[in-house]
Amino acid sequence: MATERTLSIIKPDATRRNLTGKINAKFEEAGLRIIAQKRIHLSQAQAGKFYEVHAARPFYGELCEFMASEPVVVQVLEGEGAVAKNREVMGATNPAEAAEGTIRKEFALSIGENSVHGSDSAENAAIEIAFFFSGLELVG
Ligand code: RTP
Ligand code: MG
Question: Which amino acids does the record list as binding ATP (predicted)?
Fold first, then answer.
């Protein structure tokens, strides 16, 4: 499998509870390398733009408000099959359905406040990485 990059976000429920280090350890243990990382506080408009694909979903307003409620850590993860590997380490969207040992099983509070975001395809990863990072900030 080829080396890939994917966009990850440690969400406000996790930064608030000081879980950044524990979550990063999960990524690194799975062989994902953190090649870019920064802590930012999204505006509601920025969160809305990032999650535009979900604009028609009933949870969109709540999701944007949550993502702008407190700082997040945005990061680029690199590794073999990084998109799928990251989704595996994250676990299911709903923590009640997430497998043992996954980030969401261990840390998520609810289906909405579920601690991490990860790109769902290589194509979206490229778009999402470009949303937050310039090429110069990616240090592989
Ligand atoms: P993400 O995009 O954040 O990595 O999560 P995902 O692919 O597992 O889930 P997705 O369907 O893309 O939904 C995006 C985020 O919206 C929130 N959500 N809330 N209240 C609800 O029923 C509900 N459903 C989804 C979650 O924060 C989810 O991660
Ligand atoms: Mg998604």
Answer: 11, 59, 87, 93, 104, 114
| Torsion of Cα atoms, 114 then 22 then 14 then 33, to 10° | -70
ipTM rounded to 2 decimals: 0.95
- Distance (Å) from CA 101 to ligand 1 centroid: 19
Instruction: Say yes or no to pLDDT of 101 above 90.
Output: yes
CA–chain centroid gap for 28, Å, is: 14
- Measure the CA–CA gap between 15 and 109, rounded to whole angstroms: 13
Encoding tokens for residue 105? 């099983």
Contact 121, 81 (CB under 8 A): no
8 neighbors 77 (Cβ within 8 angstroms): yes
Check the annotation: does 11 bind a ligand: yes
Q: What are phi and psi of 74, to 5 degrees?
A: -100, 140
**Ligand 1 close to Cβ of residue 64 (< 6 A):** no
- Lookup result for tokens 């991490």: 116
Digit-coded pLDDT (tens) for 17-69 = 999 999 999 999 999 999 999 999 999 999 999 999 999 999 999 999 999 99
